[in-house]
């Protein structure tokens, strides 16, 4: 009989509710926890968008607007500010495998697992002639999305997107059979660790807070990029 | 002990289950099983609704094109923006040959922008109708290729009849099985009851016979002293029993106290039935695809709905093969519809309405405030797989807490896990010194100070 009572106790224990706590005052924070629901917020939502006119730390506005004209401009003008190094490419590959390979495939031929399982269709190969992707267009599409592809700006930082762009262009070269691009030696590499940190490869994967420094350096690059193009 | 929001009372549960036991004491087992079995017929009748006749289409497959080749081309080149039967980025294409002329279609597919620039009326009209989204040119397609694609899109919709029939048959047999187990169990319980009654009746009749025929039944003699009295008089036995009871009692009390605040197995019902099994398991989506902040921040991040929409903009319903016996296709489609409602996505217009509402996911893994845990530190720096702590998430239809998340559990892992020192030049010297100090090849987290109180409590 005891056994059966025990059995019914066990079967009645509800997994859908959390267990009770001993002195919950020390469990539950006074401060607001990420993604929490609190009355002071609109819709009780703690997770909020940045206030209009502000950017979160480590973020920079993208100078091209979300329109066919913006896309065309980015496609021709925008170039990758990150140096093409082994580390950047490795970081790009890791991120590509997480975010892109699902649809675009490990080799960029548009045959990822979701395509093979016929969940998402119509993924073009990177060597598609009609699309003729460039560094600028790759970055633009990651930032805003294009057609059926959505924006990945919320999941990646600026450096991460540029690292992915490097890897995508490498895949394109491989698909087209073009010779592999040579790795650049970052400026002042001989000066040692400090300079490398300055260029931001190692710190790319760190929180945006740490990435702020290298980002300012690159801001100049992108600002100059388009100007040069126009002058030419 | 302060009462928290959802506190299940153990005593109440115990009383409840005891009364439950008493009221159904003979039938407890049979009842348990019959309650568990669900009605599998539910989904079938609904699924039959889909078996509408084939879509009427008078367009004959063009003799010049091969629909099979066309399907391949369509899936790689067109399907990103066009669906056969529904609006997407571009218009639905089934039976497009009825509406447009073949020559015009050829020109449009080759280079739609040129056609628009040339001022073709139809071209400009369709361009404006679909929000001026430019269709990319396809110069690589030959005339034959385009004919193949057109043959595919012009072909009438095929109904997978064999599958439908198979599904029905399987469903029917399932339904039969479920019912018969119920009935069998009921019959068994009934027979058991009848046997008990018969036994009692036979006993009664036999006794009556015995009384009638004058046979004397042996009567139990009454004992001088009841057992409990002699037990009480034996002091040694009393002490031993008391000690045993205290030990057993404290063992259970300890066990009970140690589970306070441990939410292992916690499995709340979420506002949207999100199946990790389908996403992370079947479709092999990286954990970090959605939980991207696990790479860079303290929290793993609950993906905002725009991440869902990156895929579900095009995936508005699940495939027939995704449905399981437990969850039908209609159920899953309904869950996707919940997402659309929350994010404010109008499927027919293929546009956001701007009316959004938050999805109030229920947090499962929650460390107490006095313990610090950083995701990026473990995932990115430590290179720990998500499954180490979260368990086989890729097999979980409904997410639950796999690990106890107690301090002992954390410490144990810190003792056993080696630190990834390779390629970390910055700390090379420290690692070397520590290895020398402990006389080991590989340092564990504990040896790096992973057991210091202030590492996690500050």
Descriptive account of the structure:
The complex is a heterodimer of chains A (232) and B (458). The termini of chain A are far apart. Chain A is mostly helical. Chain A has a domain at 68-184 and 209-221: Cytochrome Bc1 Complex, Chain D, domain 2, CATH 1.10.760. Chain A has helices at 2-12, 68-77, 86-99, 101-104, 113-116, 135-144, 158-176, 193-199, 212-231. The model of chain A is unreliable at 190-232 (pLDDT under 50). Chain B has 458 residues and is mostly helical. Among the domains of chain B are: 10-41 and 168-213, no CATH class; 67-154, Cytochrome c-like domain (Cytochrome Bc1 Complex, Chain D, domain 2, Orthogonal Bundle); 228-258; 407-458, no CATH class. Chain B is built from 21 helices and two strands. A two-stranded antiparallel sheet of chain B has the order 1-2. In chain B, helix 4 packs across helix 9 and helix 15 (305-312) crosses helix 16. The longest helix of chain B has 53 residues, at 161-213. The radius of gyration of chain B is 35 Å and the shape is flat. The chains are: A mainly alpha (232), B mainly alpha (458). Chains A and B meet through helix 1, helix 3 and helix 5 of A and helix 1, helix 4 and helix 15 of B.
Summarize the structure.
The complex is a heterodimer of chains A (232) and B (458). By secondary structure, chain A is mostly helical.
| CATH homologous superfamily classification of the domain at 67-154 in chain B | Cytochrome c-like domain
Return the CATH class of the domain at 68-184 and 209-221 in chain A. Answer: Mainly Alpha
Mean pLDDT of chain A: 73
The spatial strand order of the largest sheet of chain B comes to 1-2
Shape of chain B: flat
Give short descriptive properties of this protein.
heterodimer; A: 232 residues; mainly alpha; B: 458 residues; Cytochrome Bc1 Complex, Chain D, domain 2; two-stranded antiparallel ribbon; 21 helices; 2 strands; 52% helix; 1% strand
């Amino acid at each position: 009989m005891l056994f059966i009572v025990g059995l019914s106790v066990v079967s009645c224990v509800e997994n859908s509710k959390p267990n009770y706590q001993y002195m919950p005052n020390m469990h539950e924070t006074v401060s607001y926890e990420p993604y929490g629901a609190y009355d002071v917020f609109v819709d009780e939502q703690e997770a909020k968008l940045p206030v209009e006119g502000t950017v979160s730390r480590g973020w920079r506005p993208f100078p091209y607007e979300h329109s066919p004209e913006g896309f065309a401009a980015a496609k021709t003008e925008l170039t990758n500010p990150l140096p093409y190094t082994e580390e950047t490419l490795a970081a790009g590959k890791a991120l590509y495998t997480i975010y892109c390979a699902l649809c675009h495939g490990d080799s960029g031929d548009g045959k990822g697992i979701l395509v093979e399982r016929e969940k998402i269709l119509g993924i073009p190969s990177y060597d598609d002639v009609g699309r003729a992707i460039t560094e600028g267009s790759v970055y633009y599409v990651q930032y805003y999305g294009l057609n059926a592809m959505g924006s990945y700006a919320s999941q990646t930082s600026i450096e991460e997107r540029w690292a992915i762009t490097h890897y995508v262009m490498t895949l394109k070269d491989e698909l087209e059979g073009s010779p592999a691009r040579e790795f650049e030696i970052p400026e002042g590499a001989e000066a040692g660790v400090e300079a490398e940190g300055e260029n931001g490869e190692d710190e790319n994967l760190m929180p945006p807070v740490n990435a702020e420094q290298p980002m300012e350096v690159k801001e100049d690059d992108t600002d100059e990029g388009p100007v040069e193009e126009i002058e030419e | 002990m302060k009462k928290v929001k959802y506190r299940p009372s153990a005593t109440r549960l115990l009383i409840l289950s005891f009364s439950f036991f008493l009221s159904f004491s003979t039938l407890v087992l049979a009842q348990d099983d019959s309650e568990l079995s669900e009605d599998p017929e539910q989904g079938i009748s609904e699924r039959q609704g889909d078996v509408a006749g084939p879509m009427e289409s008078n367009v004959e497959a063009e003799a010049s094109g091969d629909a099979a080749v066309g399907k391949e081309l369509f899936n790689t080149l067109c399907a990103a923006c066009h669906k056969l039967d529904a609006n997407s980025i571009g218009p639905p294409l089934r039976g497009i040959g009825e509406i447009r002329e073949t020559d015009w279609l050829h020109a449009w597919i080759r280079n739609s922008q040129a056609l628009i620039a040339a001022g073709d009326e139809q071209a400009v009209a369709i361009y404006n109708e679909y929000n001026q989204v430019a269709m990319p040119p396809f110069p690589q397609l030959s005339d034959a290729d385009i004919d193949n694609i057109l043959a595919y899109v012009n072909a009438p919709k095929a109904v997978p009849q064999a599958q439908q029939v198979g599904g029905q048959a399987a469903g029917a047999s399932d339904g039969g099985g479920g019912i018969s187990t119920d009935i069998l169990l009921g019959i068994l319980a009934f027979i058991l009851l009848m046997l008990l009654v018969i036994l009692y009746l036979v006993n009664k009749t036999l006794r009556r016979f015995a009384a009638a025929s004058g046979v004397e039944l042996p009567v139990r003699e009454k004992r001088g002293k009841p057992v409990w009295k002699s037990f009480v008089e034996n002091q040694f036995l009393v002490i031993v029993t008391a000690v045993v009871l205290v030990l057993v009692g404290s063992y259970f009390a300890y066990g009970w106290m140690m589970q306070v605040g441990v939410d292992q197995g916690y499995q709340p019902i979420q506002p949207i039935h999100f199946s990790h099994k389908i996403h992370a398991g079947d479709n092999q989506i990286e954990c970090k695809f959605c939980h991207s902040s696990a790479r860079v921040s303290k929290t793993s991040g609950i993906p905002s709905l725009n991440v869902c929409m990156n895929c579900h903009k095009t995936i508005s319903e699940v495939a027939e093969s995704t449905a399981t016996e437990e969850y039908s296709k209609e159920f899953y489609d309904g869950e996707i519809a919940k997402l659309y409602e929350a994010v404010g996505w109008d499927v027919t217009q293929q546009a956001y309405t701007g009316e959004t509402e938050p999805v109030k996911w229920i947090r499962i893994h929650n460390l107490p405030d006095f313990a610090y845990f950083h995701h990026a530190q473990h995932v990115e720096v430590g290179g720990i797989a998500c499954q180490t702590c979260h368990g086989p998430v890729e097999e979980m239809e409904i997410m639950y807490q796999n690990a106890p998340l107690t301090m002992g559990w954390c410490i144990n892992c810190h003792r056993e896990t080696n630190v990834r020192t390779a390629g970390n030049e910055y700390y090379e010297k420290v690692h070397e010194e520590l290895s020398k100090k402990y006389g080991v090849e590989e340092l564990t987290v504990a040896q790096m100070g992973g057991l210091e109180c202030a590492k996690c409590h500050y």
